[in-house]
Fold these 2 entries.
Entry 1:
Amino acid sequence: MERQTFSEVLQNWYHRNKRDLPWRNTKDPYMIWLSEVILQQTRVVQGLPYYEKFVEKYATVVDLANADEKDVLRLWQGLGYYSRARNMHQTAKIIADELNGEFPGTYAELVKLKGIGPYTAAAIASFAFDEKVAVVDGNVYRVLARVFGVETDIASHEAKKVFSELANELISSNSPGTHNQAIMEFGATYCTPANPGCMFCLFHYDCEANAKGKQAVLPVKSKKVKVKKRYFDYFVIEQNSKLLMAKRGPKDIWEGLYDFYLVETKDELLRLEETDNDFLQEVLPIATIKSESAVYKHVLTHQTIEAKFWHVVLNETASLPLPLDYEFYTWQEVEDLPKPILIEKYLKKHHAEFASLG
DNA sequence: CACTCGTGGTG
DNA sequence: TCACCAAGAGT
């Protein structure tokens, strides 16, 4: 009997061990695209409910294209990396308006679209159109680095090329999509970052990492993120049962999401009496401070935020020049706006204070 | 190209 | 508490 190829071993394992995930039961490139974007840097358990919500609300790429960006972001709320949702929405418009709602059918065409990079293009091309092109994601880096003993730093520039070439040598011609699913599933559920199941692994005798006991050091990954501290004082300004909010702009976190009037300070949270903020100096003398929240710690990949919320109520007649882009929203509107999880947590915790708003 | 973009889970 | 991670892409 002939020795099985890497791909055959992998696919046999996959057929016996794969999870039943909804996006694996379709060839619809829209559904596959949706799932792939949701799963970027995101665990299946976290992404799954969002996938269900999106296919429910936006059944086709045209439905997504016709939606308001605000509503798309609202549905995406809590999943993070919000540019994924904004780019996906933009690309849906392109496909609906310029491509007659037809998804491009090749890797080369797919990778041109905003939000579709090398990984996602390969995933859609192979899963939906059976194109022979290897996916290279974190799982693939890990599986290949270990099995073949590749010590190239996966954070380096050449890693993409090295692992991509190896992956494309290994991929099967007859079922590239299944091969791609299989190697990722194997990485995600068996050849895991910590505590892989090497003892009973399919590649037990062939795996370089296992032979040399290097599971813990492969794949090699340099770069450590340095985390900045930021201090946010939010002023939750209420007037006539409405709250003042604005959409966040580019070049900072949470682009496209809405938050309250924000005063950011450098080394510590604000001391009210010392602020030289013009708007606050207008507001505070004519307002009632209804509550000062506890300090929230919110952790992001490259920064940790300490935040405090000041619930400030203005009397009905007070009028003041609003900062650019800020508007008063009813409670219903506030609920419907896409917001950072930090804001959502505050509103939930202080729900009683806002109960009278509706 | 090094850096930035969230959130929640884990050892 | 903390470092690291999880189906990457844009700039």
Entry 2:
Amino acid sequence: MSLAGAAPRRKQSPVITAEHDTSDALLRARPAALLAWYDRHRRTLPWRAPPGATADPYAVWLSEIMLQQTTVRAVGPYFDKFMARWPTVTALGEASLDDVLKMWAGLGYYSRARNLHACAVAVTRQHGGRFPDTEEGLRALPGVGPYTAAAIAAIAFSRRTMPVDGNIERVVSRLYAVEDELPKAKPRIKALAETLLGPSRAGDSAQALMDLGATICTPKKPACALCPLMQGCTARLRGDAESFPRKAPKKTGTLRRGAAFVVIRGDQVLVRSRPAKGLLGGMTEVPNSDWLPDQDEAAAKAQAPALKGVSRWHRKAGVVSHVFTHFPLELAVYVAHAAAGTRAPTGMRWTQISTLSDEALPNLMRKVIAHGLGD
DNA sequence: AAGTCGTGGGC
DNA sequence: TGCCCAAGACT
């Protein structure tokens, strides 16, 4: 690792030291330095083509959608499952939305799955099974925003554009000590990030910055000594790299409470589907009450489904706690047993407990059912 | 334009 | 433990 700290201090401008060299020469050298680092330290990931090879646009798109606000670790098995079952965008475009939701269950942000399916349908039916190869064309697809469009254009189609994700925001905001808070600083960070593009290999430049952000320029305790861009990194020189990017403190949502009802009929449990849009849109759930701040247990329990031929409700000890992005939730769980032949109320259905793993069950509902079935 | 939208892991 | 964070998009 060449740290390049041996360059002599400049005598003409005492403020600018070799370690804080922001000369034109250094700035021009950054894209190549970044790519050189990438060639040695790039992560091997399932959706990445081997060095020098062209990436499959479908794999790039699928991975980019899954990786939105989601860790590489969490995405790995889902990406493999999707690629095995639907190897092409056309195959995915011919699948049912329900099958896609089932496969996505557990990964979170379910609007992504709905948009994923809509996008595959659009590419299949309106684009002849081929992804648009321009940023503008990609941006028009469902679920493809400014970041994802730029990422696919650069990585899969070698377009000279720089996607800006959370990693790149962090790296660039430190490099230039951008004081403006996010999201106000986004346009400036985008412009600064583009200065790291060289004449070619835009996709590798972007992935290099992402890998850098994920492994070196981390949110906490960045390993600046190992960074190929350490020279002239303003935040590092100031010694407060960790304080970037600046962002307004986020408020935590208020706790909401409710009740969930696990009705067991032999080896089956009563479920229904949530409305297509909104929280957990289109996913499967057991009947449950409203989720409201300061809702007392009696009010929640009063929302139990009306069923004939069902035992009394038994409240399981404790609660199921879950944390959504914008509020925490506590659900009391009630269990009842239904006689064989008991009809499911309108809009509900019985499903085999043994095949729940195949349902489009969000993890919250997996926790609820496990709590209800447990001792 | 600020709020909505999951989940798991790290410290 | 509680809080922050992760390859953002949509409204």
